[in-house]
Write a structure and sequence with these properties.
Layout (H helix, E strand, L loop, with lengths): L9 E12 L6 H16 L8 E5 L8 H5 L9 E4 L5 H14 L5 E8 L23 H16 L3 H15 L13 H4 L4 E3 L2 E2 L8 E10 H7 L7 E10 L8 H17 L8 E3 L7 H9 L7 H6 L10 E2 L4 H4 L7 H14 L12 E8 L3 E8 L2
Parallel strand pairs: 2-3, 2-4, 9-10, 9-11
Antiparallel strand pairs: 1-7, 1-8, 4-7, 5-6, 8-12, 11-12
Helix pairs in contact: 3-12, 8-9
Length: 380
């Protein structure tokens, strides 16, 4: 087998969002087009300069791409719709990046859009009797993992709840967040408990929204006269699925493998990271994944969180957007929304939630199945 051709450098030059929020009567087309137009304006580009489009969506409808993109103009570009559970937007971004990096196109857009209209699971069509999953909701699955983490690490339920406190504090500075209000520890711990240690504010809200990112080549920057000073480099992209692990937390093991692959491809280590946007659908996920990524020793992330190491201005700023817990988790857009946050931070344009002198940022999403996507962006 011959060696693969080296990938070209690719850049994020424009990002845009439709604010995440509770479900409304707004058509998904309006959500998506709002985000795309914002990304185009951010880059100083027009729709007719986009050569290919990838749409990440999980809970809305099949064949939604054409009905959305036609509002921008019927330019005949190839478009592909990607569903990969919570990693749908992350997967769309990866495909847009690879398209440009491989030299197939010079300009690609990755769009995430969703309204929670149609949730379905494959178990009924899989032909295999399911004795467990249909009886354990995600909140209970992660509550059980939280109990195990508390037992093994010696962390307290209050320390785990501090994840929601921190991320709500970040989201209060984010105009696109679904929960844009800073919460105290007492508020986060307020009953009722949904499962195990989890209260309502320790579980992410699922609503609607959209996010878009424009990815271009060096050639496109020059030919289209784009502002190279605001371009953020995509250093690596990794996507893996689970194998067989000797642990109950396969998402953590998968996260460790995928992060290691992305860091190696980017030529950096975990210690080089300044920013991390990670999948925190439930509070316990943040310390578990930070340990899996190598940003904290086993069992030590909860204490590091309490010490402020993962705040804006700390050792590494984690979920400056507010994370899934407070920014929100509209499924399809979430992974691309992370790219928008990292891009804004790496440009130094995040305003009150800016993490100073950030150079490297990592975006992480896991998806039911399980899959894991990790992207590393850099300010060159």
């Amino acid at each position: 087998m011959s060696a693969a051709a080296p990938l070209r450098t690719a850049w994020v030059v424009g990002v845009g969002l439709h604010p995440y929020r509770k479900v409304s009567r707004t058509p998904y087309t309006e959500l998506g087009v709002t985000a795309i137009r914002a990304a185009l304006a951010d880059a100083g580009m027009s729709w007719d300069q986009v050569q290919t489009a990838y749409t990440g969506t999980a809970t809305t409808s099949m064949a939604l791409s054409r009905l959305m993109y036609r509002h921008l103009g019927a330019t005949g570009i190839p478009m592909m719709q990607i569903e990969n559970a919570s990693a749908s937007g992350s997967s769309a971004f990866r495909q847009a990046y690879l398209d440009v990096a491989a030299g197939v196109h010079e300009v690609a857009v990755a769009v995430g859009v969703d309204k929670p209209l149609s949730f379905s699971a494959p178990a009924r069509a899989a032909g295999v009797e399911d004795l467990v999953s249909s009886r354990i909701l995600p909140v209970t699955h992660f509550a059980l993992l939280a109990s195990r983490y508390l037992y093994e690490s010696g962390a307290t339920a209050e320390q785990i709840a501090q994840v929601a406190v921190k991320n709500s504090r970040h989201a209060a500075l984010n105009p696109n967040a679904q929960r844009p209000k800073a919460r105290t520890l007492a508020e986060v711990l307020e009953p009722p408990h949904l499962s195990g240690i989890f209260t309502r504010l320790q579980c992410c809200p699922v609503g609607e929204g959209a996010a878009a990112a424009l990815i271009v080549s060096d050639r496109a920057i020059d030919e289209l006269g784009l502002n190279r000073d605001r371009a953020v480099r995509i250093r690596s992209s990794a996507l893996r699925s689970e194998t067989c692990y000797g642990t109950a937390n396969f998402d953590a093991a998968l996260t460790g493998e995928t992060t290691a692959e992305a860091l190696a491809a980017a030529g950096i280590t975990a210690a080089d990271l300044d920013l991390v946007e990670l999948h925190d659908a439930f509070t316990v996920e943040e310390p578990v994944y930070l340990e899996a990524m190598g940003l904290s020793g086993p069992g030590h992330a909860a204490a590091a969180l309490s010490a402020g190491e993962f705040d804006i201005g700390g050792r590494v700023a984690v979920n400056t957007s507010g994370g899934l817990l407070s920014m929100g988790h509209p499924i399809g857009p979430t992974g691309i929304g992370q790219i928008a946050e990292l891009t804004t931070q790496l440009r130094g344009e995040a305003g009150a939630r800016q993490h100073a002198d950030a150079r490297f940022g990592l975006a992480h999403m896991v998806g039911l199945g399980a899959v894991c996507a990790v992207h590393i962006l850099a300010r060159d």
